[in-house]
Amino acid sequence: MAVLSVIFDYGRSHPFLSGISPHITNATDTEVGIFSPNLAGLLKEALSDGYYYYQGSLTSPPCTQGISWVVARRIIKASAEEIDAFIPILKNNVRPTQLIGERYILEYIPFGGVDTFIFDEQSWYIKALVAFSLISLLFITMCFIYACDFALRPFMYTKKKDYSEIL
After folding, report:
1. Hey, which of 63, 129, 137, 150 has its CA 20 to 30 A from 80?
2. Do residue 85 and residue 144 come from a single domain?
3. pLDDT digit string (tens) for 42-68?
4. 25-28 contacts at long range (C-beta below 8 A, 24 or more positions apart)
5. How far is the C-alpha of 122 from the C-alpha of 107, rounded, in Å?
6. Spatial contact of 63 and 57, defined as CB atoms under 8 Å apart
7. Do residues 39 and 19 lie in contact, with contact meaning Cβ atoms separated by under 8 Å?
C-alpha cells in the first residue's frame, strides 16, 4: 500500500480544495453528487519540487506497517475554510511521530537537464555528485588500464629466442 501526502498550509484559496471541500461530510448516509476534482493538476503542482520517500505506517488504527510514503516537498497554500473542512473527518488521525529507527528517507529533486546547469540550494549537490561520479569512473578506468598494462607487460615485450642456429 502507498500513501501520497500533500501538505497544505493556510494561505490563499486553492482550486483543488475549493472544488472538493463542499462535498466533505462526516455523515455516512448523505448522498454526494458526482464531481471531478483535478487530481492530476494538484499532483503536478505538489510534486514539481520533488518528494520524500520512506517506508512507514498508517497514521490511524490499526497503524499498519510497511506503507510506502511519498511526501511532496512543496507545501501548497489553501484557505482556512478549505483546510478546516477536513477537521471533522480526521478525528482518529493523530498517531504520534515515530522514531526513524532503521528507516531511510530518500529525497527526489527533479533535475533540470544538461542544458540548465544552474547552481542553487536544491540542486548543486546533485550536479556535484554527478560530476564526482564521472571523474571517479574515469579514474577507475585509467587505473584498470594501467593495471592490465603492468600485468601483461612481461608477455608483450619478451624477446623471442632465435632458433635459426639450431636448425
Report:
1. 63
2. no
3. 888 998 888 899 888 888 778 888 889
4. 25/89, 26/88, 26/89
5. 11
6. yes
7. no
- 60: cell is 490511524
Query: What residues contact residue 141 under an 8 Å CB cut-off, 6+ apart?
Result: none
- Same domain, residue pair 104 and 81: yes
Residue 58: helix, strand or coil by DSSP?
A: coil
What's the rounded Cα separation, in Å, for the pair 22 and 28? Answer: 15
With vertex at residue 54, the alpha carbon angle to CA 116 and CA 15, rounded to the nearest 5 degrees, is: 65
In DSSP terms, which residues pair with 51 in a beta bridge? 72, 108
Q: Distance from CA of residue 2 to its chain's centroid?
A: 14
In terms of Cβ atoms closer than 10 Å to its own Cβ (0-12, 13-18, 19+), residue 78 is: buried
CATH number for the domain spanning 22: value is: 3.10.200.10
Name the β-bridge partners of 69. Answer: 3, 54
